[in-house]
Amino acid sequence: MIYAARCFSTKRAVLFSSLFGLLVVACFGLSGRSFAADTKAPIDRKSPKAKPSKVQQKVTPTTAVVRQAKRPPEPLPGEGTPGQFLLAVVKGKKLREDAFTTYCDLVDYLEGGGRSEKHLHELLQDFVLQEIIEELIPDIAQKTPKPAVPIPYTSFQELAVLKQGLRAKLESETSPTKAEMDAWTRENAERFTRPEQVHAFHLFMQVSKDIPTSSTEAVRKRMTEVKKQADAGTSFSLLARQYSEAASGKVGGDIGWVSRRMPIGPEAKPMNLALENALFDLKPGQVSEILETSHGLHLMYCADRLTTYVPTTEELITSRILPRSLQVQMVRKKWQEGVKSTKEKLGVTVLFDVSKADSLSSDVPAVKIKDDIWTLRQIEEVYGPRFTAAYRTRAQSTQTLAMLFDEVANELAAIYWALESGVDKDPRVARDLEWAGKRARMKKILSSYIAEKYPVTEALLKKAYEERKNLMRLPEGRGYIISVNAKPTSAGMSLDEARKAAKQRAEEIRKRILAGENIEKLARELSEDNRASSGGLVERSVLAHLSDPAGRMFGAVASWLKAGELSEVRQFGNTFVVVKLEERWEGEPPAFEQVRQRLQTDMATENEEAARCDLLLKAREQGLLRWANPAAKYGVNPTEGY
Q: Quick one: angle between helices 398-420 and 385-394, nearest 10?
């Protein structure tokens, strides 16, 4: 249930994000998505063959009860071809796979959510329910009126479809010419230009006035001998590994590909200018003269070099940067100009007095467009939590509130512009508008149905807490961790090779622990994390509450171990760890008030699942719905009916 709660909390958090940041993004052709994915596994509540998830094995709905339907007719066979199979017949209308896929694309654009099995299952249920929910529960549907607004479209989803249709229309009318692309290339050349680069190696010897053997003369003599070997063809990398006193000597002096004045090294500072100039004067395979700085003597080596690259228009077209980037820019400009023109033509005016911020539920006039007056209530009903959150956040300042209503005016102007352009008459846009409107309506009715039929009371919350509190215990543990980090140890070693070597070292450490060597001693000698100095020890702690880097990795691994158990080698990015859990405690369950909201969210999710099943079974009983066998692909059990 913890996972389910997190999914749902994420969805709510995004739902209540600021409306008009998303609106501006949608205007410029980005996704405009506003809902997060819910990736719980699909629930089959009745099938004896279903294998429930761990969560389902532990927890069952507290308030929801699924209907026991009369024996329904047999599922329909899977008529059609792949991609167009029949999924269901709803009120005599055939619902096929290609239409459902298009519906999924629409919801993904409007709300996000991805394509998990759980989400596809819910979307198929939604696609069916939105066609029949008003007939299934007419009493609740009648108590859920549509918002009374000046335009035919009453949901944020429908308005998003209109804006997307308008953007598509502008894109179809915008084709950059060759001359415009050439001009754009000149203006943006710097973004795509690759500066001159050198694959550099460095060999360094320190000088000291206090040590005779490290005097400038003595060091120069040694450096001269090294240069002779390099000029004679000895590998510069081998010489650097043998003689260099810089940190890069451990990797053969390799400091990678560098460009002029590029920050390098642990301090992220540009190379000494004298060294840099000498380096960039070299040809591939050449070694510099002996160079002197205040720190000592240096040799630079150029392994390879790349000249400055400035792409042409043709190259940007080949790489598919053009014409799309310019088209997006041109459409953005057209959008801004079109909204401004529409506001002037239709006389869009903000009527709301931001110095007298009123309740959102009031009928105070907010925006006027032509003869249409939009009230605060109407705006809030259409945009819902997005506008509510934006309003409450900005109501603390008249300036930010005024900016909010300017954005509202721009948003509504774009909608009127789309309608005047006939965007809603386009067949594809009309279809999407119909689906988006039905979906928004279905969601409201379903929400009212759940609230009425499956109320989550305080008594039920406390009952659920008593049933589930032991599942919420946060285990505690004490043990040890050893970490091995993947890092290149020689010139030319790739990160994949470094990871392979690090994993091998971790496996060898694990074998030594199994052979009886002291894990604390091994951690001090070999571990590469913040707990190495303490022998890798993690004192008794709540595993989920450890906050330091090594502690987080320990908690993630130890949560699945028994007391006395040694883990396999586990990978976290470029780090490989071995964990031994010495002792384990169940931990205390959290207090009711700490998990009250989480319980409420879990129960609401369970009740929604049960309500869907209940309504779909009712639809089958009334002859409104008949599933076809291919619906099983999307988590529906055609025999059971949901």
A: 150
